[in-house]
Design brief:
By secondary structure, this protein is mainly alpha-helical. Helix content is about 60%, strand content about 0%. The chain has a domain at about 1-40. It has 3 helices and no strands. The radius of gyration is 20 Å and the shape is elongated.
């Protein structure tokens, strides 16, 4: 994933303002890439099929099942 020079400069400025530390362009690029990947992961709606089978699985002991019901 390529991050524009302007976006990277802005990321470096924000990091400095928030944490008071200077970071290299290489560090900033890695951090920004990870942040973007995390955002994409969190903003992706999980498939109902993936979670429906987990939500209906019941435990064999006396505790109620944990999970999302669909």
């Amino acid at each position: 994933m390529h991050i524009s020079d302007e976006a990277l400069d802005e990321f470096i400025e924000i990091y400095k303002a928030e944490f008071g530390d200077d970071i290299s362009r290489s560090e900033a690029s890695e951090m920004a890439s990870r942040l973007i990947k995390l955002y994409k992961l969190l903003s992706t709606k999980p498939s109902a099929k993936k979670y429906s089978s987990q939500a209906t699985t019941h435990s064999t002991d006396d505790h109620p099942p944990i999970g999302f019901r669909t």
